[in-house]
Amino acid sequence: xxxxxxxxxxxxxxxxxxxxxxxxxxxxxxxxxxxxxxxxxxxxxxxxxxxxxxxxxxxxxxxxxxxxxxxxxxxxxxxxxxxxxxxxxxxxxxxxxxxxxxxxxxxxxxxxxxxxxxxxxxxxxxxxxxxxxxxxxxxxxxxxxxxxxxxxxxxxxxxxxxxxxxxxxxxxxxxxxxxxxxxxxxxxxxxxxxxxxxxxxxxxxxxxxxxxxxxxxxxxxxxxxxxxxxxxxxxxxxxxxxxxxxxxxxxxxxxxxxxxxxxxxxxxxxxxxxxxxxxxxxxxxxxxxxxxxxxxxx
Length: 298
Hints:
- By secondary structure, the chain is of the alpha+beta class.
- The chain has helices at 8-19, 60-70, 108-114, 172-175, 189-194, 199-204, 211-231, 233-248, 264-267; strands spanning 25-35, 38-44, 89-97, 119-123, 126-138, 145-151, 153-155, 160-162, 274-276, 281-283.
- It contains nine helices and ten strands.
């Protein structure tokens, strides 16, 4: 088969493959200016996990909200601007290839999505990065806010990211490269998990398990459910009574009791978050209600 441009079907297949797997990228840094009372803030993020620690009202939630806005996870509102100031709120985000033993370059799939947004920030060794600026302004009617996402370019002379005179608007395909959700810290996580429309519930609705592995797990789930029914005197009695009722009314079909859901998506509704307080794991919903000792480690 000769090399040539991808056909429509091949292109669609490539997009479906892209959507089914994670991009090997990480947020490297963010820069805030005039955002919700933060005059200026630069933050470097660790590739795997970054913890923000500080006193109440020190800006932790504001930083998380800024990242979520830059990644299009939440809509902007007027409170994202600094009260009493006419300055626009600025959020600069830099993304990098996920750490690996290979070159510090984006993989082919990510490069294809980002296109000309990929910038060489170093030549020897090669370093590739991509960055964009989210600018928040008051809406035209003055009651809300609107945002724009534009490309930043790497200035070799100053070794900094700059906004070009005519910046390129970020396309939806590029903005959707990173799927993100913001769990509001002012709301209880237990409440979030109980609401079907909440961000964390939407996240759990798709556990992203490979199809072959899903079939195997659901077979185990079905077998375990059958074992539970067979081991339960109550459930076996219910089946006997239902079968008697079914025979007496000449119903079509036969009754069945399942102890566990047959699909993994339904099983995810039973996912809970627990804490080990030193005396065993305690569900989050009981935190603060039990008189148990806690240990703080530094």
